[in-house]
Design brief:
Blueprint: H1 4-22, H2 25-39, H3 44-50, H4 55-69, H5 76-87, H6 93-101, H7 104-112, H8 119-133, H9 137-145, H10 148-158, H11 162-176, H12 183-193, H13 199-216, H14 224-229, H15 236-248, H16 255-265, H17 277-308, H18 310-318, H19 321-329, H20 335-351, H21 353-363, H22 365-373, H23 378-381, H24 384-391, H25 399-420
Helix pairs in contact: 2-5, 4-5, 5-8, 7-8, 7-10, 8-11, 10-11, 10-12, 11-12, 11-13, 12-13, 13-15, 15-17, 16-17, 17-18, 17-20, 19-20, 20-21, 21-22
């Protein structure tokens, strides 16, 4: 027979549940605030003790109320925080199962898709999904099977709050780890997010892709175009992450496509100008800046890649990178594009005599000497005629010259090897 103390505890819990069942929204809100103040941080055994071993009865009521009212945002913040007390409690496996069995994951994912709900509520829903995902592989699979990747990705792309964006990004990263069945789905979802327009979201997605790519191992071809296009971003933090990811992808199957794209962006295709002068000026103002930023960032990336790998340098030479760098150096519309192209070209000139010879002929002695003296600031003293010479250059290092270059480098390597021996 239950002791008097146990009977009293059960009676108190039944009164508590009766008040909840009969209570209005105001009453239930007060109950939730009291619940949070008293029970936040408690373990599962402590919650059971508080509720006379029937805490699941309150969890069921709370879950049902959320499912009925979440679309209206009624007390949703309190509801989700109270739910978090159950899901985050130590040894809360039973609570987790009970919540999932009544469609809890779908409810949380649906909250993410409600445009009228507050960002703070969506952040809390993402936090609860993260708790579920952290419980193990089968829970991650359940989220993915419920179209969770799509819902979380859309939330990240649309959210204006950095807190929500960061929580969504962390959840996507979590879903890619220890989830072999759906890790490719997460990976492709991240690639799709590269075209979103929010700079912070772009930065977060690029950071996650750098973490996830080694897990996936094989790079998907669809990453190339949106990744390269992010080089035109006005935000340096986005450009930085894009360049870092491009660098890391140099060991993957998409390297040739990335290198071709980088070289092509050094010499943007000319757009057809509108007939009316006013329209032409407007189009020039709105369209030219991203193209110029892309040109500068491409030159910078090429310089970084060439300095890190001689193999990549040779691939770039075969793509006529010297011709394109000279063209970019002559672009007087954007000083940074000139500077980055000049610095990248300097590396090739100092590394390969055959490149030095071609560049000297293309520039002329005077300009070439100025270039070798201070490539970083050459654009500051360049006149219109010199810029035109660079843009109209015809440099084309032949296959035979590239083969000879390879042979000379191999001879030099062998000479050093035998000399050391």
């Amino acid at each position: 027979m239950s002791s008097s103390k146990e009977q009293t505890s059960i009676s108190q819990v039944m009164c508590f549940l009766h008040e909840w069942d009969q209570g209005s929204k105001t009453v239930r809100s007060r109950i939730l605030r009291d619940f949070l103040a008293k029970n936040t941080g408690k373990t599962c055994p402590e919650l059971e003790l508080e509720f006379a071993q029937v805490a699941s009865l309150f969890l069921a009521r709370l879950t049902a109320w959320i499912r009925l009212t979440y679309m209206f945002g009624s007390c949703l913040d309190l509801q989700l925080r109270a739910l978090g007390v159950f899901l985050s409690a130590n040894s809360s496996h039973q609570y987790m199962i009970e919540f999932l069995e009544v469609g809890g994951v779908l409810t949380l994912l649906e909250i993410l898709g409600q445009d009228k709900l507050k960002e703070e509520d969506k952040t809390e829903a993402l936090h609860l999904l993260q708790i579920i995902a952290n419980s193990g592989q089968k829970y991650k699979e359940l989220i993915c099977e419920s179209y969770g990747v799509k819902a979380v990705a859309e939330c990240l792309a649309k959210s204006k709050m950095e807190g929500t964006q960061g929580t969504a990004a962390a959840l996507l990263e979590s879903l890619a780890h220890g989830n072999p069945k759906y890790q490719n789905q997460v990976y492709k979802g991240l690639i799709a997010l590269l075209v979103c327009t929010l700079p912070k979201a772009q930065q977060l997605v690029l950071q996650i892709l750098r973490i996830v790519q080694p897990i996936i191992k094989t790079a998907h071809h669809s990453i190339v175009e949106p990744l390269l296009n992010l080089l035109r971003s006005l935000h340096l933090e986005v450009q930085y992450e894009a360049i870092e990811l491009i660098t890391e992808l140099m060991q993957s199957e998409v390297r040739p496509a990335l290198l071709r794209g980088l070289v092509a962006f050094l010499k943007p295709a000319k757009e057809r100008n509108p007939k009316h002068k006013i329209l032409a000026e407007m189009a020039k103002m709105t369209d030219s800046l991203p193209v110029l930023l892309l040109q500068a960032a491409s030159a910078k990336t090429i310089g970084i890649l060439a300095q890190r790998s001689e193999e990549i340098s040779k691939e770039l030479l075969s793509l006529r990178v010297i011709h394109h760098l000279l063209y970019a150096m002559g672009n007087q519309e954007h000083a940074d594009a000139q500077r980055q192209a000049s610095l990248a070209l300097e590396h090739f000139v100092r590394m390969y005599p055959v490149v030095e010879e071609h560049v000297r002929r293309a520039m002329g002695s005077t300009l070439f000497e100025s270039f070798m003296h201070n490539a970083d600031e050459l654009h500051l003293s360049m006149d219109d005629i010199q810029a035109d010479i660079l843009r109209s250059n015809k440099v084309n290092i032949s296959c035979g010259e590239l083969i000879n270059l390879k042979i000379e480098r191999e001879k030099a390597r062998l000479y050093v090897f035998f000399f050391i021996i």
